[in-house]
Amino acid sequence: MKTALLIVDVQNDYFPKGKNVLVGSLEASIRIKRLIDEFRKKNLEIIYIQHVAQSPKAAFFLPGTDGVEIHRNVYPKKEDKLFVKHFPNSFRETGLDEYCKSKKIDTLVIVGMMTHMCIDTTVRAGFDLGYKIIVVSDCCATKDLEIGGVIIKAADVQPAYMAALNGTFAELRTLDEYLQGEI
Questions:
Q1: Is the pLDDT of residue 182 over 80?
Q2: Nearest to residue 171, comparing CAs of 126, 114, 112, 105?
Q3: Which of 33, 41, 61, 76 gets the most CB atoms within 10 Å of its CB?
Q4: What is the pLDDT of residues 120-163, one digit of tens each?
Q5: Would you call the peptide bond into 114 cis, given omega within 30 degrees of 0 as the criterion?
């Protein structure tokens, strides 16, 4: 088995002063940095996904803005692989699947933002493509959601999505659990 760290959409617009601030984005990024450091020590593959909006009417991740840039806490190095995406699914029209197959990567450790959108979609797509998926749950962030005038707090959204992924689509770990057992 060959494992890679997949860092999804840890971009400035999700942080304080950004255009779509998530709950816990800063704390998640600090934990992701710890994970990056461990992957670097072991000389393991690190892959970044950067979402860039295609529509000029998009609310965030607009090309040429500070908001679209990867956050300084987890900024990639030149030896890391970076894929740009335009859809929630990190595999869709990016070359990610082909790249992983060419590198014989069969296990993806997935972290990033937004849990209820791009993390959920990427995990399910990766599972469908045959990858073993590990999600480091406290290295992900989401936001409050609204339906029919009811606000669902991020503190409820996060565990609900993680619980839905756990077991069938992915194995879930906290950062400490992952660092103690896997790497």
A1: no
A2: 126
A3: 61
A4: 999 999 999 999 999 999 999 999 999 999 999 999 999 999 99
A5: yes
Token look-up 């060419």 returns 102
Q: What φ, ψ does residue 94 adopt, rounded to 5°? A: -115, -25
The C-alpha R_g of the chain, in whole angstroms, comes to 15
- The pLDDT tens digits for 37-88 are 999 999 999 999 999 999 989 999 999 999 999 999 999 999 999 999 999 9
Taking the C-alpha atoms of residue 8 and residue 22, their distance in angstroms, rounded to an integer, is: 14
CA–CA dist 13, 78 (Å, integer): 23
| d(C-alpha 166, C-alpha 40), whole Å | 27
As a whole number of angstroms, the distance between CA 133 and CA 169 comes to 7
Alpha-helical (H) ranges within 46-115 are 96-102
What's the gap between Cα 71 and its chain centre?
13
Q: Alpha-carbon torsion 164, 35, 108, 68, what sign?
A: positive
The pTM score is 0.97
* Tokens (6 digits) for 138: 């406290």
